[in-house]
Amino acid sequence: MDWDDPLRHLAPISEHPAKKSTVLSSEPSSDQELASLKVNVKLDRFGLASARHNRAACILGFFFQFLEDGGRKVLAAEILAWIDIEDNLFELANHLVAAILLPFKASGGKAPPPTSRPSIFADEDNEIEQTVAFIEPSRRDQTKLKRQCLRREGYQCIYTGYFDRRSVKNKEVTLPQKAKCGGTECAHIIPFALGNFNEKNALETENKALIWWTLYRYFPALQGKIDAASINQLGNVITMFTEVHDVFGDFQLSLWPQENHSYEVTLMVPQFCIESKSGSSIICIEQHDADIPMPDPEYFKVHHIISQVLEVSGLGREIDELLEAADTLDPNGSSDLGLLLSQKMLIHTWV
């Protein structure tokens, strides 16, 4: 493997209870407020039984609060069907953490670095095709993707408006007066690691298939748009200043679609001092090359919803502590101790 996949030590992800228990089918309620009230009342009562019950109720409640209508209807049907089968609700809460929150948090902002070299030909695409034949496939893909991203975004970070330093140096773009430049990265919205797996590893293949099954179940808008094989698509990447990418990849900054490729910024880091290019909470992603597809708003929605659940539930901080503990004991993730801790982290019982 030519890239250090942050999810390579995934232990078996806990099964979704629907695999063994039928969810009662029912027609979608025409009164969404009444349906939401029923779910919230049921979860409140369930949560009173014990601290463990309360923990499961909170996890399910936060997902129910932030999911869009398609995913909320699925989750509502599950909660109402299984409210008297407490083991199913515990399993459901654990599964949502293990199959969605944990993989996203652990792999956000991580992808193979593109090849770094100065541009020497005007025809950048031909240069890439001719000079990277012997470079690892993951890095080769990232190189081409970043070039396309940069052209689409006008060689600028979509959040700060900073120009890409290398592109300015190579005279691919002229730095306007008073404009700033800096290092930029090709940032995946849905993490790259969800599409990168070793097909010879049966457990890894099964785990990532289960992650995608779960994503489609609660984010049905993703079906037909993206999967493990198409993670490296232009609709799933944006150009970001390195420090902004760090925060975005950590799910501490998210973008919610508005109209005409405008997005509302949500920041979970009060001390983050890098101002948006607009100076406000609304930014616009401009298309400088009409031949290159724009980022897909549905992917930003998924990123935002997961960011909100991680933050409000406090699970983001818990996962960070586990990841930091794993890095402290084994920075390379290669020793038996590191492997054992990684496996423990990924089969952690959350409720």
Automatic annotation (TrEMBL):
<dbReference type="Pfam" id="PF13391">
    <property type="entry name" value="HNH_2"/>
</dbReference>
<dbReference type="InterPro" id="IPR003615">
    <property type="entry name" value="HNH_nuc"/>
</dbReference>
<protein>
    <recommendedName>
        <fullName>HNH nuclease domain-containing protein</fullName>
    </recommendedName>
</protein>
<feature type="domain" description="HNH nuclease">
    <location>
        <begin position="182"/>
        <end position="254"/>
    </location>
</feature>
